[in-house]
Amino acid sequence: MSSTHLPSTVGLRVVAALAQYGTVSSAADALHLTQSAVSKQLKNIEALVGAPLFDRTSQGLSPTDVGMIYIEQARIALGALETAAVRVAALRRSQPAIRLHVLPILGDRWFMPRFSRFAELHPEIEVEFTTFAASDTVEEADAVFRFGDGNWPGWRADYFLGREVILIGAPQLIARGGGISSLDDIRHYPVLEHRQTPLRWSDFAQATHLNEFVPARINRFGYYSLVIRAAIGGQGLALVPRSLIHDELASGQLINPLGLGFTSPNCYWLTTPANRPLGAGLATLREWLLQEARQSEPMEVALLQETAS
Amino acid sequence: MSSTHLPSTVGLRVVAALAQYGTVSSAADALHLTQSAVSKQLKNIEALVGAPLFDRTSQGLSPTDVGMIYIEQARIALGALETAAVRVAALRRSQPAIRLHVLPILGDRWFMPRFSRFAELHPEIEVEFTTFAASDTVEEADAVFRFGDGNWPGWRADYFLGREVILIGAPQLIARGGGISSLDDIRHYPVLEHRQTPLRWSDFAQATHLNEFVPARINRFGYYSLVIRAAIGGQGLALVPRSLIHDELASGQLINPLGLGFTSPNCYWLTTPANRPLGAGLATLREWLLQEARQSEPMEVALLQETAS
DNA sequence: TCAACGATAGTCCGAAATGGAATAGCTACT
DNA sequence: AGTAGCTATTCCATTTCGGACTATCGTTGA
Predict the structure, then answer these.
(1) Which position among A68, A299, B194, B222 has the lowest Cβ density within 10 Å, counted as fewest Cβ atoms?
(2) CA of A23, C1' of D27: distance in angstroms
(3) DNA-binding: is it a keyword of this entry (chains A, B) (predicted)?
(4) What is the DSSP string of A61-107?
């Protein structure tokens, strides 16, 4: 009612994607747009808001105070549209589809590349995804990916992936800092942290007997994709589930100095409502997901033993 | 993530306005668009959703099941954008504006026509409105219009208007049904009801000693504007705060048979947080609002006495 | 210091969406 | 029938949007 001009929905999606990916180019990729288009959309929205939403750095974008507020509300708006679509679809379908809520990081790094295989294998099973959905809408889903220790009252949780957390950094960063030849060397490096899982570093210090670890600097990010991006950009060391960065490790963009890592109790789980019996389609999907996850973590058993010793 | 195409924001606003006003034409007026544009926007959204959102009647539009769902989410999305705007504005402004949350019906029928006078009188006081905002966002407002009995813990409530509820109907409807020459005649007519205030009719029956009142038919609406519109359209009798329909009574579009009505404990209140002290601007605004409301209800004292007798 | 790289911003242009005016069609009521 | 009050549709001018391309800036590495 206040402003006569409303932002465009693609603008909102651009803002959300920028917050998630941290650069115009990668956000553009994710949205199937060009860098130019995303840049212009951002410019439009900022003109409409009347203030910059992101600080421009040479590495990419980071949200301003105003941006934080706007991003949050943009997500809510997009989430509403998403749940509208899902609910309408559910209402119209005689045979309901499976509603699966995926976390952004899993969606980008694990799910989307693989899911087409499932769709080919089981074309008869319809699956709908939500990503932005608010917590109360998540309750409606038939299966929900969650991050945590596997204990959610009312939900059955199966371990999915991400138990194996490793220390990573960009090779340039590590070279610049003098290299990591012993555990203590990591004290010299800045570290990156995911805002929602702040205990990672203390867990790591405890698991590796690294006493009184006080990082040189801590940068916090709201998304794992940003942590990974920042790590690739050489902004610091990070603790990341190995499964999420197979590609970067293989290509050498990131390295795992000394093979350091630990097994975290906090990881990704596939959860299903405990009171609701699993339908046939959901059972198939669940089996497939869990098996695919096991295959994508081939080293885990070895490492579990190693860390346990 | 599911649909590649997002609805446009004006489309969302169109849907919300259609739900509120019930006809394409009046929604178009409210949005400062033409009927043609609104019709096309609706068509676009429906094509995108894949199902009609409204049933077309010769009287206007009424939401379908799918429509209800979509409307709800559209409101949430618009509300998010609104709160984004308000919060950003609050953040940027050194001297904060007064944030006032108005109910749709009051905004349309009472507030907007009058508020420009206040803006002229006190140009130094900035006021921001919210309409769509969700309940948790309402808590941030400096003043909130509410409907109820004046009892909200933590809020100071001043009576605003709407205590005087009268029976109204379109003259054609009443003529068609044989006229209303005694209280009992209203049993023959269909009645209109506001979804959120379902007790009106039983309160009315009790206040007027109309025993065992079972309406011929009940039509329920989600907005008071729809109730009023339906009453004007001759769809039934309604119980409506007199202050909201002065114009229609004066023009003869609606009549108040036998002067029937009652004083309801549920009405509109202007509420302010009890713990927060009123700033000077807010105090001025509050005084002005309450005084204007008193002036727009000149007959009330007389009627109060009448009904009490 | 210079060149390469990767980042964002800006310009030009064709395509698509949008909104307004006018028109056509429909239904209910007199 | 005829009218009033709706919505839907068509035509058209205008605006917006997105992609290709180019400019520019900062960082990295030889």
Answers:
(1) A299
(2) 16
(3) yes
(4) EEE-HHHHHHHHHHHHHHHHHHHHHHHHHHHH-SSPPEEEE--HHHI
- Residue B40 has a pLDDT of 95
Ranges of chain B with pLDDT below 70: 1-4, 298-309
Integer CA distances (angstroms), B111 to A175, A255, B108, B240, in order: 66, 63, 6, 17
* Inter-chain CB proximity B82 and A1 less than 8 Å: yes
| CB-based burial label for A161 (10 Å; 0-12, 13-18, 19+) | buried
DSSP-derived letter for residue B222 is: S
| Mean pLDDT, contiguous 10-residue spans, chain A (309 residues) | 72 95 93 94 94 89 92 94 89 83 89 88 88 80 93 94 92 84 86 83 88 81 87 89 88 88 93 90 94 79 44
Q: What pLDDT sits at residue B305?
A: 43
Min Cα–Cα distance to chain B from A77, Å: 4
Catalogue all structural domains in chain B, each as residue range(s) with its CATH number.
9-77 (1.10.10.10), 96-161+266-308 (3.40.190.10), 164-263 (3.40.190.10)
What is the structure's pLDDT at B4?
57
Rounded CA-CA distance A147/A145 in Å is 7
From residues 202-221 of A, which are strand D contacts by CB within 7 A?
A: none
Chain B contacts of A91, Cβ < 8 Å? 65-66, 69
Interatomic CA–C1' length for residue A243 and nucleotide D14, angstroms: 52
The angle, 0 to 180 degrees and rounded to 10, between the axes of the packed helices A280-295 and A112-121 is 130
- Within 8 A of B83 by CB-CB distance, chain A residues are 73
- CA B297 vs CA A3, A279, B246, B292: distances in Å: 31, 60, 9, 9
Alpha-carbon distance B81 to A74, whole Å?
Answer: 7
Residue B38: nearest nucleotide (C-alpha to C1'): C19
Q: Contact at 8 Å (CB) between B270 and B290?
A: yes
Chain A nearest CA to B130, separation (Å): 7
CB contact under 8 A, A73 and B86: no
Q: Which of B297, B299, B290, B298 has the alpha carbon at shortest distance from B118? A: B290
Contact (CB<8Å) A81/B86: no
